[in-house]
Amino acid sequence: MIESPAERLPVTPRTGRFLVLAGVFICAACGLVYELELVALAAYLIGDSVTQASVVLSVMVFAMGVGSLLAKRLRCRAAVGFGLVEAALALVGGCSALVLYAAFAWAGDRGEMWASGSRYLFVAFSLAIGVLIGAEVPLLMVLIQRIRRQDAGGAVADLFAADYVGALVGGLAFPFLLLPWFGQLTGALLTGAVNVLVGGALIFGLFGRDLSGRGRCALFGANIAVLAVLASAALLVDDFERAARRAVYGSDIRVAVQTGVQEVVLTGADRASLNLYVDGRLRVSGRDEHRYHRALVQPAMRGGPHARVLVLGGGDGLAAREVLRHSGVRRVDVVEVDPGVVKLARSDPALSELNGHVYRDRRVRAIHADAFRWLRGPHERRLPYDVVLADLPDPGITASTKLYSQEFFGLVARVLADDGRFAVHAGPVVTRSRTYWTVDATLRAAGLATTPYRVTGRYSANAAGPDRTDDGTARPHDWGFVLAARDAHRLAVARDAAVLRAGAPAAERVRPPFWQGFEPSTLVHPRYAD
């Protein structure tokens, strides 16, 4: 007598169906974690998170369709096929972060090679993971029909319901559980381990009698091999991360912390050799930071009253240090989104020496808040600020785009005194001219008069992100700033500052002839791209 598919199960059809849907739920959660991991890594290692998210997700969705078509060839061996697909997905997805970070660390010093090859590497992983995710549903459709025959529409509805709910859980688990508790590398490895264990348990537990002896051995060996690779990588991940950081930042790393907002790394033992990196991008170099911060602060402070000063960003305390060098300052408010940066600026010996221990000064107050949200808050009881300084990352970084929008500059104007001045770091002028002059156009659209100026900038062999040129090499470049006020008279007064006397003509010399055609950047239509 031939057994029916239901009779070959070790549990009742109802229980078997529930277990298959539970497996779909968990595997879908793992699949979405892999997708988000690739998006996060692409934004961190390459930059421009909108572009990278669009590329990774669109390629992955396309690959899922390809995977669904390819899975048709495995339907006759659905059980062993699904088990092998899950083992392969666990291996590729679990190790993707390690491989991509290793390529960034050890090939990134060959700037042009990394710049040209990194996107292809991300696309390759997106394709591989998408194909494997896409192959899951057709195989699961066959398996769930073996448990209990039902109409195709009902089976598809059940599978996709479990799949979408699992994706929701995975999407929430990535930022709120895996990333803060385990980090990107260990989080991906742990997800891979869960993936292979669930896939293997589902097949061996429910459909083991459907496997041939050869198929059982192949699947068991594949699962053990994948678990061994993931476990070995998890044991070595701390050593790997330290080695990769040394390859990226050099051998003199003193502090490397994930603050919950970003990764912050300090290198160098004294103020002269100190470098501060945020998410892999050089933000402060002890060799030449004084040129940047004096250029940002001096023109605005020399342009009129400066008793009350607002610093947006600048949690390292270096802009506040320059502010306090001017007499008559009564209060400095530093709005910094990351408390971890302020903590380092207070406690790290080299960084606190570099900023002159400004946070010990009673006039300086640190406010841990997003600058945009803080400016939108109630201002009825606040006195206006004489000087506002935007010490923020380059506008070309997607996360900073809203802080260079017309809406943001309009919010700054609300807290600016009638005779106040607003100085903005606007990125390099020569290498990102379109971005720089778009900042100027956006300030004008917000109703402010402007004076653009520039100073020569840094050279760093370890520069990353915005501090690298398009071909991936590091070379000297400039810093661009814009001084703004409600009327041009205040800007004329500030032109006595030494920085403006040299910096304003330097900016005018590289002003593109078509700059007046640049449109302002807004929240719904960001325009910062070179």
TrEMBL record:
Which residues does the entry assign to the active site, renumbered to this chain?
A: 391 (proton acceptor)
| Pfam families, per database record | Spermine_synth
Boundaries of each PABS domain copy? Answer: 234-486
Q: Which GO terms describe its biological process?
A: spermidine biosynthetic process
- Residue positions annotated to bind S-methyl-5'-thioadenosine are 262, 336, 370-371
Reaction it catalyzes: S-adenosyl 3-(methylsulfanyl)propylamine + putrescine = S-methyl-5'-thioadenosine + spermidine + H(+)
Which pathway does the protein contribute to? Amine and polyamine biosynthesis; spermidine biosynthesis; spermidine from putrescine: step 1/1
Keyword presence, Transmembrane helix: yes
Membrane-crossing ranges are 18-46, 52-71, 83-108, 120-144, 156-182, 188-207, 219-237
Which keywords are on file for this protein?
Cell membrane, Membrane, Polyamine biosynthesis, Spermidine biosynthesis, Transferase, Transmembrane, Transmembrane helix
What's the chief localization of this chain? membrane
Cellular localisation: Cell membrane
Record's bilayer topology term: Multi-pass membrane protein
Class in the EC hierarchy, top level: transferase
Give one GO molecular function term. Answer: thermospermine synthase activity
Q: How does this chain assemble?
A: Homodimer or homotetramer.
Family, according to the entry, reads as follows: Belongs to the spermidine/spermine synthase family.
The identity of this protein, by name, is: Polyamine aminopropyltransferase
